């Protein structure tokens, strides 16, 4: 894998929902990261909670139940879910750096990041207000993927000369 | 069966030779198939989501709600 593309990325929930958008640039980046063997990860319970949004997703994405199940199956194959036990000791520390003050909604994401030194993929600007955990926006990942494509193209070109 | 020729760097070729018992053609074949399968799956998503009315704003709202439920499950 090109060195600048992270080996592992914790995927923020908003990114997951925009997987269901028409012509989603986030879905395109998601696919290209998988092609680069980047492991996409999430905290415990995300997959179950995403399934509980089934009717919302079907309504907004205009898909039927079979299509929803198909998408969930693919997301299940592509995203590695970590058990709470693997990072729960860091939830309190995560709360000190996660960006929403007294709020706790981002704590599992930051705890997982601290436990394994994984960066987070999020377009939430507030995530970058701290410096302990590296945060990539979709645009930054897109640029890295483009750079990696250019590099591998120039390597192939020079080898074939 | 058709055959495909790959170009790789000399140092990579030397590394591959060290593992002569590995069937590199099979490894390459599996990688091609995996990539093709993923491309097909994502092409299908582009097709089934062509009428989607999901927006980034809605995704953020649903994402926020989901994260609150996930935090609650963590006892937070």
Number of helices of chain B: 3
Q: Biggest sheet of chain B, in brief? A: none
Shape of chain B: elongated
Summed over residues and divided by their number, the pLDDT of chain A gives a mean of 91
As laid out across the biggest beta sheet of chain A, the strand order is 3-2-1-4-5
Helical content band of chain A:
40-55%
- Structural class, judged by helices and strands of chain A? alpha/beta
Count the DSSP helices of chain A: 8
| Amino-to-carboxy terminus distance of chain A | 24 Å
Estimated radius of gyration of chain B: 22 Å
Query: What's the count of strands of chain A?
Result: 5
Low-confidence stretches of chain B: none
Fraction in beta strands of chain A: 5-15%
Radius of gyration of chain A: 17 Å
**Level of helix content of chain B?**
55-70%
N-to-C span of chain B: 58 Å
* Oligomeric nature of the chains: heterodimer
Low-confidence stretches of chain A: none
What's this, in brief?
The complex is a heterodimer of chains A (161) and B (76). Chain A has 161 residues and is α/β, with parallel strands linked by helices. Chain A contains eight helices and five strands.
Question: Can you walk me through this structure?
Answer:
The complex is a heterodimer of chains A (161) and B (76). Helix content of chain A is 53%, strand content 9%. Chain A has helices at residues 13-18, 25-35, 46-51, 54-61, 65-78, 91-97, 107-116, 138-160, and strands at residues 8-11, 39-42, 79-81, 120-121, 135-136. Chain B is mostly helical. Chain B is 68% helix and 0% strand. Chain B has helices at 10-18, 24-48, 56-73. Chain B is elongated. The interface between A and B is large, with 51 and 34 residues.
């Amino acid at each position: 894998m090109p060195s600048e593309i992270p080996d592992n990325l914790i995927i923020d929930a908003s990114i997951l929902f925009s997987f269901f958008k028409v012509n989603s640039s986030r879905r395109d980046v998601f696919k290209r990261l998988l092609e680069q063997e980047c492991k996409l990860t999430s905290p415990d319970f995300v997959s179950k909670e995403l399934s509980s949004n089934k009717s919302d997703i079907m309504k907004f994405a205009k898909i039927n139940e079979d299509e929803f199940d198909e998408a969930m199956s693919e997301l299940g194959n592509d995203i590695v879910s970590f058990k709470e036990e693997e990072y729960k000791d860091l939830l309190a520390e995560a709360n000190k750096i996660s960006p929403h003050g007294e709020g706790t909604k981002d704590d599992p994401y930051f705890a997982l990041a601290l436990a394994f030194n994984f960066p987070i993929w999020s377009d939430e600007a507030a995530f970058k207000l701290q410096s302990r955990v590296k945060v990539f926006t979709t645009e930054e990942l897109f640029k890295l993927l483009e750079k990696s494509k250019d590099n591998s193209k120039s390597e192939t070109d020079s080898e074939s000369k | 069966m058709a055959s495909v020729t790959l170009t790789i760097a000399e140092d990579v070729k030397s590394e591959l030779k060290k593992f002569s018992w590995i069937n590199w053609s099979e490894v390459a074949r599996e990688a091609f198939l995996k990539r093709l399968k993923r491309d097909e799956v994502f092409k299908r998503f582009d097709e089934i989501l062509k009428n989607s009315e999901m927006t980034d704003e809605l995704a953020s709202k649903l994402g926020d709600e989901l994260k609150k439920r996930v935090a609650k499950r963590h006892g937070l």
